[in-house]
Design a protein that fits this description.
Length: 479
């Protein structure tokens, strides 16, 4: 068990008066460690340190920032097995998925090391004689980064790396359920030579630490990933305090399966999208909209493969689906399984499972015979559950796919180029997948959605500069 009872504030590790327990969802008797539970004063002190550090960091050469991010990437890679094991233990994703996530985080740091050197501006002619106009991008300032438990290292990476690359100072508040990966990432950034105050870690309760971030006047912006409910609260608080805000929240992502789809492809797309990572992805495929002609064959094969998935301890050899991340999440998933049955679905799977260890195991579930009007098909569950909705034709499928409060990711399985092209154009989602799962995105292109899924500018890729920089327009009259 590790003693990680400290936050990093102004380049110094500071012990907290209070701690939270980090337990393993594959085995609740396994206490991974005790982690600091910081408070509002820690945010105030981190903001003060960041304010002192800000001018030098904002003025540092892009080479210096690129070198730092490169060193972070190299160290994540060197320690990938250790970090993946921590991630699998505290979040519950199987080791192979955890390793994939750690590698993704290293790629993100490497990508933004390059982006630090590529930040561009514009030079324009003025409408007035003898005047030049330049448009440049400067760091936004001190940014608060609030992250969820489901990608404990990749999501922090894709917020922290661009923040640092573009010259911002950071106050990082990870989810209380997964402080271990955040603590290791902080050690790595600190030991890679990040100047004191440029990067600060404040672990603690969302309501306390998050609240302090929204009211501190020195913090210029907040980037958040998590629930719609907390996102909405942050939107109100940031508007009241004039802070820039970027939100990534939920999804109820549809996959349309057309009669002409390649059956094998469609089954593998939906199996992966709906159930991998225990369905705990905002991009998970939770609504399968299936045309009548392929419906029965598709369901027969998908059910067969779903029931063959190996569910168990995240570190056990050959496991494909780990536990649900927390007791409260498991209880919520089981509530939705019961609700789907009450609403008239034929529910396949979804029961709680017992294994050798005491963990939050649940069988993946299909809600057959669902309609898009059911609550179980409209509300985000965030578990290994997918509603199956039968449709007659393409038009009905597209209408149902877009009939949701969310708009993060969507997909279609088809071999018809016309359907693929039409869906790409008409889908009301930020990301559209053709013959690919709705989840599992590239790290170098924009990520984000529409409607209740996202707010503010896109994350990832060069589009991240929109949030982490502030535009300046300079006019020069040379006489
Ligand atoms: N979009 C996504 O990727 C995610 C969506 N969710 C959704 O949210 C549901 C609940 O999961 P939670 O972990 O409880 O999400 P959450 O939204 O409560 O937590 C996300 C982060 O926000 C922080 N937070 C909580 N209250 C806050 C506040 N008042 N001000 C500022 N920060 C605050 C948390 O400490 C954590 O770091 C899930 O069942 C799922 O539906 C959860 C995690 C990720
Ligand atoms: O699907 C992915 O690759 C990313 C999903 C994600 O960011 C999330 O679930 O929060």
């Amino acid at each position: 068990m590790g003693e990680m009872n400290n936050n990093l504030i102004g380049g110094v590790w500071r012990e907290a008066d209070d701690v939270s327990e980090n337990t393993n969802p594959s085995d609740v008797t396994d206490l991974i460690g005790l982690y600091a539970r910081g408070g509002a004063q820690d945010v105030t002190d981190a903001a003060e340190a960041a304010e002192v550090a800000m001018p030098a960091w904002a003025g540092a050469t892009p080479q210096l920032r690129a070198d730092l991010l490169d060193r972070v990437a190299a160290e994540i890679t060197r320690r990938e097995d250790e970090i993946a094991t921590m991630l699998a233990c505290e979040e519950g994703k199987v080791l192979l998925e955890a390793l994939g996530e750690v590698r993704r985080a290293a790629h993100v740091f490497r990508f933004f090391a390059g982006e630090a050197l590529r930040l561009t501006g514009d030079a324009l002619a003025s409408v007035r004689p003898g005047v030049d106009v330049e448009v440049t991008r400067e760091p936004l300032g001190i940014v608060g980064i609030i992250t969820p438990w489901n990608f404990p290292i990749a999501i922090p990476a894709w917020k922290i790396a661009p923040a640092l690359a573009y010259g911002n100072c950071v106050i990082f508040k990870p989810a209380e359920q997964t402080p271990g990966s955040a603590h290791i990432l902080t050690q790595i950034i600190h030991e890679a030579g990040c100047p004191a105050g440029v990067f600060n870690l404040v672990m603690g309760r969302g309501s306390v630490v998050g609240e302090a971030m929204t009211t501190d006047p020195r913090i210029s912006g907040i980037s958040f990933t998590g629930s719609v409910q907390v996102g909405r609260q942050l939107a109100g608080a940031c508007a009241a305090n004039m802070k820039k805000l970027q939100l990534e929240m939920g999804g109820k992502n549809p996959v349309i399966v057309m009669d002409d789809a390649d059956l094998e492809t469609a089954v593998s797309v939906c199996l992966n999208g709906a159930f991998y990572q225990t369905g705990q992805r905002c991009t998970a495929s939770s609504r399968l909209i299936v045309q009548s002609g392929i419906h029965d064959a598709f369901i027969a094969e998908l059910s067969r493969q779903m029931q063959a998935l190996k569910v168990g301890h995240a570190l056990a050899e050959g496991m494909q689906i780990g536990p649900v991340a927390a007791r409260s999440q498991l209880e919520s998933n089981l509530y939705y399984v019961a609700l789907a049955a009450e609403e008239g679905c034929d529910v396949l799977g979804g029961e709680q499972l017992t294994r050798d260890t005491e963990g939050y195991f649940q069988a993946p579930a299909l809600f057959l015979g669902a309609s898009n009007a059911m609550r179980s098909a409209r509300e985000e569950i965030f578990g290994p559950c997918a509603s199956v909705i039968r449709v007659d034709d393409f038009e009905e499928a597209v209408a149902l796919a877009n009939d949701t409060q969310f708009g993060l990711s969507s997909g279609i399985c088809t071999t018809n180029l016309r359907y693929a092209r039409e869906f790409k154009r008409r889908s009301a989602a930020g990301m559209v997948m053709l013959n690919l799962p709705t989840a599992g995105v590239d790290y170098h292109v924009p990520f984000g959605g529409r409607k209740a899924s996202s707010f503010g500018s896109r994350e990832q890729g060069s589009y991240a500069a929109e949030f982490y920089t502030s535009v300046k327009t300079a006019y020069t009259y040379a006489g």
